[in-house]
Amino acid sequence: MDVYNVLKTYFGYEKFRMGQEKLVDSIVNGNDALGIMPTGGGKSLCYQLPAIILEGITIVISPLIALMKDQVDSLKEMGVPGAYINSTMEQNELITRINEIRENRYKILYVAPERLNTSYFKDLIKDIKVSFVAIDEAHCISQWGHDFRPSYLEIPKFIDSLNTRPVVGAFTATATKEIVHEIKHLINLNNPVESIIGFDRPNLFYEVIKTSNKFSYLVEYLNSNFQEDAGIIYCATRKTVESLVKKLGDQGFSVIGYHGGMDSDERQQNQDDFIFNRARIIVATNAFGMGIDKPDVRFVLHYNMPKNMEAYYQEAGRAGRDGEKSNCILLYSPSDVVKQKLIIQNENLTHEREELIYKNLQYLVDYCHTNDCLRNSILTYFGEVIENSKCNNCGNCLDQSEMVDITEESQKILSCIYRTNQRFGLTTVIQVLRGSKNKKLIQFELYKVSTYGIMADYSEIAVREITMTLVSKGYIHITADKFPILKLTSKAKEVLRNEVKVYHKKHLIERKGQISKREESKKKDVNENYDANLFTELKELRYSIAKERNIPPFMIFHDSTLKGMAAHLPKDKEELLTISGVGLKKYESYGEAFISVIEDYCGKK
Ligand code: ADP
Predict the structure, then answer these.
(1) pLDDT at 528
(2) Per residue in 30-74, pLDDT tens?
(3) Is domain 204-398 in CATH 3.40.50.11690, yes or no?
(4) φ and ψ at 169, to 5 degrees?
(5) Any atom of ligand 1 within 6 Å of the Cβ of 322
(6) CATH architecture of 403-527
(7) Per-residue pLDDT, 386
(8) Which fold has domain 3-196?
(9) How far is residue 331's CA from residue 368's CA, in Å, rounded to a whole number?
(10) 161, 249, 285, 396: which could join 259 in a potential S-S bond, CB 3.0 to 4.6 Å?
């Protein structure tokens, strides 16, 4: 079978996603491959599809033990025989599996890296034909990255120990130069074909919300966006998780919690409830997410700001793996920055390390304060070349609110920093500007400086907002210390001398006012041409089949596939097979049930 045939028959897709075809072709033709694609880019297909075509077995090395069963179940739904070997298996289960592998019953075998060089595994592998070794999460081999796993260093030894060198493929979403170099070098890839797809996730909408009442914003958001779809709410602490679960539950939302302090059964139960769509919203600490590949998470809302852009992008990136429109909302409050700083201070780090961590934190703070395109801010962080100044799919690009000239306010703030000899932090500078009677100001005689009280008619929040905007625009530098100090950069002169103007969104800096909430939280549901009522009926059918078979609903069909059905109303096998996501095996298992619901629905209309 050729690759397109396999793509349609097993995966149900007509087209490859960007970068996939090149890798698949390379592997099927016996060449090594390196795939660097963002989360949701479709890496699994790049090794699963060749595995179906190639003779013998493909070994997929993955550190995500929790995901192996899901991957194998998904393959089974597509008609591909797969198995896994990891530490969660009982001894007799392991023996049975090994015997089945010897009998060539499987095309794909998932293995945790720790198993590779064990004697039983080596013994098994010497008798079977391994055509291809795929290394998932390949960045785990690099000591530069934050996910380093020593067991990954065992992989080259394992590959060398095979009778014939198989094709080797490495896949990751992490693309820093050092890590890519280490992957190629340590795994010893042989002149690999490379597919490096940018970091951008065009289906994700980014937004930063500054609100004085996070909870009421959250409730309003949940009531007006993706009312029935799954979402993750990330919080900084276990306590916040618990209180939010309670408060949202009281308001009637289908919600569960997840954090490291729960016992493992409860955690597993809650995770399953979320994945199987039994609970719609999961409120969690950052303990949740690694190894979760639920494709239909429609929003990831950060109730607190995480520690840096990398953590944010990883967590937010759990939205929309299926390519459907999804939201990534970050609720910002200055107190979250203070909390993060406290955590850093308590970590007992070397000065250098501490400085780096502060710098990384500051980047995310700047992200929260920029008026420019949020997507570009993220992509710049990851070293991407920016093509357009606006993405038109983030809160800032879509924000129509009036921009006002804040040059004069900016000059007041910059000169206050100058007049106080660049020796104080944000809070003190704001107090001086607003003419506070705080003891510290008296002690340092700051009430005598000429800028004392010159912004007395602005709210504390407004002065803070403008100051942080000046930081994000590079006019002020915040030192990376325990007690960060505001300093002027060389660029600050441009503002002080009236050579450049500074602008800001009006509604965020109204005098004496609170930071106002957006007039309405925009509804960003997918707006395609499908019948929403039929879509609901198809989802109900999918849910009941999933329940009966004890698999997550997305393993049957993705939302996008159900929407395709609700748009094209297929009447028979031939028409159903034209819908993206319907392969032959899935048609055989479920086709008739879905056609019958569509038929009934059309008959009723
Ligand atoms: P990654 O491992 O890169 O994060 P996955 O392999 O989990 O991404 O793929 C993300 C989603 O994209 C999956 O739900 C998968 O079914 C879907 N997908 C992969 N390839 C295609 C394709 N060619 N067309 C449509 N959907 C695809």
Answers:
(1) 63
(2) 999 999 998 888 999 999 999 999 999 999 999 888 789 889 999
(3) no
(4) -125, 140
(5) yes
(6) Orthogonal Bundle (1.10)
(7) 87
(8) Rossmann fold (3.40.50)
(9) 9
(10) 285
